[in-house]
Amino acid sequence: MLAASWDPPEHGMTLDFAPSRLLSPYRVLDLTDETALLAGRILADLGADVVQIEPTAGSSARRVPPLAADDVPEPDRSLYWSSYAANKRGAAIDITHPAGRDLLLRLVATADFLIESAPPGEMARLGLGYEALAGANPALVHVSVTPFGSTGPKAHWASTDITLWGSGGPLLPQRDEGRPPVRIAAPQAYRHAAADAAGGALIAHFARVRDGKGQHVDISVQQSVMEATLSRVLSSLIGDVDTLAAGGVALPLPTKWEVSDGYVSLTVAMGTTTGHFSNNLMQWIHEEGHCSDEIAAIDWRGMQRPTGDGEVAPELLAEVEGVIRAFLADKTKSELMDAAVQRKLMVTPVFTIEEIAASKHLQARDFWQAPPDSPLPGTRLPSFPAKVDGATLPVGRPAPRLGQHTREVLVDELGVDAREYERLLRDGVVR
Predict the structure, then answer these.
(1) Would you call 169 helix, strand, or coil by DSSP?
(2) Is the pLDDT of residue 13 over 50?
(3) Beta-bridge partners for 264
């Protein structure tokens, strides 16, 4: 735990200890719901002691699908919760109750970070705004994740995943001419913001290492999704071509192609930067006798517009498409992946979920891990995507059961009297 006159731990920010303990001296209070659970999971993977504080009825994230079979107790059925709450401990406290609020402030005095995703003003209404938190611990890094930030004219606006994408810009290319844009796959705007929340917490921590002071890190989902596709959305402002409507423009050639065992994503790229990849592809096809000299001689580096307008006759483009389609039809995804590496091609397999789960590459990196004593036996969870000093950061703890560590955190560590704890249990303040 940090104090206003905090001295850095002996190991500082070096790697002279187990990579899984990078943040081991630090405690994080995670008050987020399903929108921002990822932030605490990232810090937990880095070794922080993350305590998930949830309502006594259970976090709403516990009800987010997909859900396991009915024979699993209801609070533990969510695979979403199982993944994003892994590596954390859990305590159930009703922070809307005055006694619960006081407990949280006592925990804040022992913590280094607090992350929450409450609507703007909600924490202050509960007596847990930044001033109250900083009063309990001036060195606390308080991270809030909200749709449009905690200040500004849109701070209190309602939002959905699709409106956040629209307000941030990435929805613009996802349109047909003449109709509104379509949504971007599964809801994920908040995932970008949650990752930014973890990064913002560590940036604030870096400053705290120098001056011992905490601060409020204010994350806006709108700004996070804007940054997520910055080059695509804002490139026209610095002189690039306008962003194309993905559904309203006839592309010269497909980007998804059928192969013998599924599909690949293969781009016939144009222009000085990427056209050589297409030249490499056509050279390979020509070597195997599947295209004419005329097609093999096309220099795709000389085409600057992605539509190919005026560069190649439509009839020739149609012939190119047919040649590629026939060439790929009897190739496997594995063959094409090997060729992509050897011949420098812009192609990647479109993997099924089963193929991802069985990936030898991910297996070699220890990516899928089964934490011990999981309420969902046999479930493998994704680990931290980066290795640190050559080591995989482990998934050593399953998502907590409801109230699993409440007594441990409050009585054993915070020092709450056992009789007081029993009274809090009877009053429904804790679970």
Answers:
(1) coil
(2) no
(3) 257, 349
Compute the CA torsion angle 36, 134, 413, 50 (nearest 10 deg). 20
Using pLDDT thresholds of 50, 70 and 90, give the confidence band for residue 11: very low
The model carries a pTM of: 0.88
Q: Is 116 helix (H, G, I), strand (E, B) or coil?
A: strand
Q: Is beta strand 113-116 parallel, antiparallel or unpaired with respect to 141-146?
A: parallel
Domain with 314 in it: 256-355
Q: Is residue 251 part of a domain?
A: no
Helix (H, G, I), strand (E, B) or coil at 226: helix
Query: To which residue do tokens 């009063």 refer?
Result: 135
Q: How far is CA 74 from CA 60, 68, 84, 142, 270, in A?
A: 12, 9, 17, 32, 53
Query: What is the arithmetic mean of pLDDT over 23-30?
Result: 96
Asked whether residue 240 is domain-assigned, the answer is no
CATH code, 130: 3.40.50.10540
pLDDT (tens digit per residue) in 259-304: 999 999 998 988 888 899 999 999 999 999 999 999 999 999 887 6
Together in a domain, 205 and 75: yes
User: Taking the CB of residue 396, how many other CB atoms lie within 10 A of it?
Assistant: 15
Quote the number of domains for the chain: 2
Distances (CA, A) of 271 to 22, 257, 300, 354: 44, 21, 6, 36
Q: For residue 89, list its beta bridge partners.
A: 51
User: What is the model's pLDDT at position 247?
Assistant: 59
